Protein: Aminotransferase class V-fold PLP-dependent enzyme
Amino acid sequence: MDKQKTTIQFLMEHADKRPVSFHMPGHKGASLYRRLGYGEFLDKFMDCDITEIPGADNLFQTEGILKRTQERYAGLYETDRSYMLINGTSGGIIAAILASVPAGGKLLMARNCHKSVFNALTLGNIAPVYLYPELIEEYGILGAVTPQEVQRAMEEEPQAAAVILPSPNYYGVCSDIRAIAKVVHRHGKILIVDQAHGAHLKWLGRGTGPVSAEEAGADIVINSIHKTLASFTQSAVLNLNSDRVDRYVLEDKLQAIQSTSPSYLLMASLDINADILEQQGTELMEQWQGNLRYFYEEVKRIPGIRVIDNLENFDYSKINIDTGLLGISASELENLLMERGVFAELTTGNILMLMTGIGNQRRDFDTLLHALRDIREKLGNRERDREPGKPGAAAGGNAGRAPEKKEIFAIPKAKQRLALERSEGKICASSIIPYPPGIPLICPGEKITAEDIRYIRSLRAGGEKVIGVNENGEVTVGA
Ligand SMILES: Cc1ncc(COP(=O)(O)O)c(C=O)c1O
Structure:
């Protein structure tokens, strides 16, 4: 990394390269707004950066323009209420959990939940009870949380007040939310779905793909509009569709954990996204779906490029390439794509994930296909020896590895920082989180194993960011 570069220099140079984005955010740059008729907003960008002047409403007590935007979302998602979030889905998740689980209570949660869920546990003094997702052996990635797993956990922990799980997960695997909602509601509890990666599910591939968690009956659903739709990074929407949650408590938690100076630029971009969906949503979704269909057809013709294309209840707007047949790792493919101006979202082991969004155009898919053909040609025939059905390296990855069912110990009160290498057998006191995908590999209260240490070392050696290991290579454990 060039240490001399400033943030703004980096951003300007990156923009000048005109990169093809298959990562967040979903708008993929200014051209979407300009094409669809919102260029004037971009031209007046700084002048729109205001605070709560008269007439501008207040996010935490909406009565005017912001209320109207929120009502647009409630209409679009067909829910009782929608709340704009300016701290991303992360903020919505924390507020939803604090509103659903009493302090000191228990939460049933998928072990592959995002770190914001773990942060909510700390803030609310809440104890986790883990639901373990399945492993999809063929690709070595984490699969769905089954209704049976939820049923088992609910019987074991009748005290738990709520259930939370991500759907889709980072790769696109969706859980059967309709069936899970039935189980949760039969027990009189609250179902929260982290739909950070599926804000588009209500519209994209309607009738053929997974249904949105709103339609499937979840009580609270949180959507990162910025990840796949057309608003700015950090803007999101929480949908409340239930009487099981006290809305006043939820609203209180939302104001407690978000900035008291919510950005009107973020909220305006949410309003623009609502406008886009209302005015041009059908056409844009058809184009997006058509481009995906085109890509999946074309990519089949490139030998050695294997994509996930055979899973049910899967969000195919996430393109997952299994690099096993290419004889290179996902991060090597990421670099080769980057050299060709294409930027991916996530790599774990053998799986490279490209996140498409509402702003991607046919030419982006063509550039990607062209780059893949070129890479394949340059690499030649280096098919890797891999036993069919055996998970690739991604299975050893964090999100790719079915989280081990570990014994949960009390979170240590007395803490120390210790070199990672010397931490075997110690109880973790602060989450260790490879980022992305931001799912804790080791949670507070779990024992660190020799295998964990080996894996974290390999991630760091590969240049990946691991939050929870400081610049001196130390982790926080029980003293
Ligand atoms: C599964 C999952 N949930 C929640 C979040 C947080 O979303 P946001 O970036 O909108 O805060 C992320 C972020 O990547 C995520 O991957």
